Amino acid sequence: MARLAAFDMDGTLLMPDHRLGEQTVATLRRLRERDITLTFATGRHALEMRKLIDILALDAFLITGNGTRVHSLDGELLHRQDLDPEVAELILHSKWDTQASIHVFNDDGWMTDKPVPEALDEHIYSGFTYQLVDLKRLPAHDVTKVCFVGEHDDLCRLRIQLNEASGGRANLCFSASYCLEVLPLGCNKGSALAMLSSRLGVPMQDCMAFGDAMNDKEMLASVGRGMIMGNAMPQLRAALPHLPVIGHCRDQAVSHFLTHWLDTPNLPYSPE
């Protein structure tokens, strides 16, 4: 029996309209009734996620910013990791051959230098929004992570540029096909979950996790039961071919799987 369940948000718990379905919320509450610890492990900001769990009235630990922050049930900061200031300085003050928009995150929120109204669609449920600032004026020692948002092929070329320029001093990963994340070296959801599980006295073998993108890879690979979404990035399936694939986020597949697991754990599961 799993004692801790960790969930990615976008493409996993959230439906394509970026909302949580009623079945999903009801199933999460059933897990809490069984004394299973909930953890939301997401690239989203802690400020946004705290608002969401307050709306849903759910007790959950938060792994946010793709592992850069970990918060307790009552909001206490348990772990933080920021981008190397030299890497942040390089990214913010260099000219990159890309059409992608650039987004910077720290504890104050989400900052970008040009209006990107379509980016707000993903935050319709919470109302979380960006601040328009001159990114070059941001202090390099206060950058948690940077995201580039654009076409996938463009981002793949940019990843090569960033890796060469940074000398491998950052973790570069795709949180979606259109979003390239620049994270502190060694920082990911898996390492953050390992820290949290150790603190809670729950072995990783007693954890389950759900995800759909390459920023979920380490987390899914390190738990006793990792589940890949049917809508997952092909790269994730290829990286973890031994893990089972469940249904699509549009069908609230996490809820479907967990309902089966809670009610008929001895029967084989089918996403159909």
Automatic annotation (TrEMBL):
PANTHER family linked to this entry: HMP-PP PHOSPHATASE (PTHR47267:SF2), PTHR47267
MF GO annotations: hydrolase activity, acting on acid anhydrides, in phosphorus-containing anhydrides; magnesium ion binding; phosphatase activity
Binding-site positions, Mg(2+): 8, 10, 212
Matches recorded under Pfam families: Hydrolase_3
Naturally occurring in which organism (per UniProt): Phytobacter ursingii
Key word S-adenosyl-L-methionine present: no
Catalytic activity line of the entry: 4-amino-2-methyl-5-(diphosphooxymethyl)pyrimidine + H2O = 4-amino-2-methyl-5-(phosphooxymethyl)pyrimidine + phosphate + H(+)
Cofactor(s) demanded: Mg(2+)
HAMAP family: HMP_PP_phosphat
Active site, renumbered: 8
Coiled-coil residues: none
Taxonomic lineage from the root: Bacteria, Pseudomonadati, Pseudomonadota, Gammaproteobacteria, Enterobacterales
Chain's gene name: cof
Family: Belongs to the HAD-like hydrolase superfamily. Cof family.
EC numbers for this chain: 3.6.1.-
Protein name per the record: HMP-PP phosphatase
Keywords recorded for this protein, A-Z: Hydrolase, Magnesium, Metal-binding
Function: Catalyzes the hydrolysis of 4-amino-2-methyl-5-hydroxymethylpyrimidine pyrophosphate (HMP-PP) to 4-amino-2-methyl-5-hydroxymethylpyrimidine phosphate (HMP-P).
